[in-house]
Amino acid sequence: MISTTVVLTIVAFQLLLIIGVVWWVLATQGRSRHHDEAEAHAMDLLREPLQAFLIHGGSSEPLAAALAKLPPAVAARQIQVMGGSMLGEEQMSDLALRVRQDSWVDETLEQGTSRHWWKRMEAARLLVMVCSSRDQPILAKLVTDPHPAVAAAATAAVGRHAERALVVEMVRRLPRLPPTVRLQQMHGLRRHEWIVTPLLVDALDGNLPAADLQVMVRFGEILGTYAVLAAIVRL
């Protein structure tokens, strides 16, 4: 027969488990409500300057000023939404130039050195929106990040902003990357074909291990320049 002590221990454990689950649910709901309230406040604050900039062709300064009033994480999410689905390329470049000096941008990009991968990913996502020539060091760090999600997020900035040294390093690292990140970076590097083509031709004409050669052939097929395709034919 099970002793009273054992029964009480089991009951106590079950009660603690139930209390823990209830606390987790309430905490999650609280965070969700706070997030929703923050986003709603941001939309109210940004609506008028965004409309003036987007529809009426006004200055981006009022919109940048409104973003600066938001918590950094909220401002970063909002500018990603704008850049992803609302603003044209020229408008986004204008806004990016305007906000790049703001403290909330620097604060978010500084997360690129965090030991937590999700904070580095937040930095990478914002970097794609606001990257400038001064950001080569952080771009190089994030696009070569050991965590696939971070490297993948930063890759979207490669086409427009990567300088020669970074392009060369990215090509060199392709065979060592996870397949999904590798494919994304191959496509991101296409905009630098004048740099990539001679590098890839030399690699294909060299003495690569079979696995590396397979990667470079795939990259050559994606790049599609005449010189690279000719090097593939010579194999």
Short summary:
This protein is mainly alpha-helical and 235 residues long.
| Low-pLDDT segments, ≥5 res | 25-32
Radius of gyration: 24 Å
- The overall pLDDT, averaged over residues, is 86
Tell me the major beta sheet. none
Give an overview of the whole structure.
The chain is mostly helical and 235 residues long. Among the domains are: 60-133, no CATH class; 162-235, no CATH class. The protein has 14 helices and no strands. Helix 3 (72-85) packs across helix 5, helix 3 crosses helix 6 (117-130) and helix 12 (193-205) packs parallel to helix 14 (226-233). The protein is flat. The protein starts with a helix and ends with a helix. Mean pLDDT is 86; it is low at 25-32.
Task: Please describe the topology of this protein.
Blueprint lengths: L3 H51 L6 H8 L3 H14 L3 H11 L3 H7 L7 H14 L5 H8 L4 H8 L2 H4 L2 H10 L5 H10 L4 H13 L4 H14 L2 H8 L2
Helix pairs in contact: 1-2, 3-5, 3-6, 6-8, 8-11, 10-12, 12-13, 12-14
Which structural traits does this protein have?
235 residues, mainly alpha, 77% helix, flat
